Amino acid sequence: MFSEAELIEIEKIKKRYESPQSSLLPVLWMIQEKEGWISKDSMSYAAELLNIPYEYVLGVVSFYTMFFKKPKGKFHLQICTNVSCMLRGGYELYKYACKKLGINKEEITSDGMFSIEEVECLGSCATAPMMQVNNKEYFENLTFEKFDELIEKFKKEI
After folding, report:
1. Which of 4, 59, 5 is nearest to 28 (CA)?
2. For residues 80 and 42, is the Cβ–Cβ distance under 8 A?
3. What is the pLDDT of residues 49-79, one digit of tens each?
């Protein structure tokens, strides 16, 4: 699964920690960055790399919502509906986005471009409502119009 350079990086990660279990989160991030999600085969691979039980890896992947247990769209949209976002239209934005894309929670558009989920606080309460895309980009003070513009921008990036 990993290239020689990536395996060298994993060895560096392992040296930073006293126990192999402590290396698991960065290794899982590397897998998710490479594959887009964490499959059962990927969990087995991580367990073998770190010489830890598969069940331990499964427990970690199951516990943290930041790890995707099934494939996502090229653009995974996470819309916050926690208190500040909710009060400033987060639920309405989430419902609008689902309708606009023709999908529901954790579904993928038929072209594989978009997936969506409702999430808890993304830490942007003063600029709510907000959306995170692919665990990397943040878009704040969203309106339906700004959402539409973003979707069109993402479609052009293909």
Report:
1. 59
2. no
3. 999 999 999 999 999 988 999 999 999 999 9
What b/e readout covers 9-36, taking b as 16+ CB neighbours within 10 angstroms? ebeebbeeeeeeeebbebbbebbbeeeb
Q: Is the peptide bond before 129 cis (omega within 30 degrees of 0)?
A: yes
Spatial CA neighbour of 93 closest among 44, 158, 145? 145
Residue where the block lists tokens 């899982």: 28
Q: Indicate whether this model's pTM tops 0.85.
A: no
137-154 per-position pLDDT tens digit: 999 999 999 999 999 999
Tens of pLDDT, residue by residue over 4-38, are 999 999 999 999 999 999 999 999 999 999 998 99
**Strand 114-119 relative to strand 75-80: parallel, antiparallel, unpaired?**
parallel
Structure tokens at 33: 């960055």
Rounded distance between C-alpha atoms, residue 48 and residue 44, angstroms: 6
Check whether residue 55 and residue 79 sit in a common domain: no
What range defines the domain where residue 86 resides? Answer: 75-156
For the domain that residue 130 is a member of, what is the CATH number? 3.40.30.10
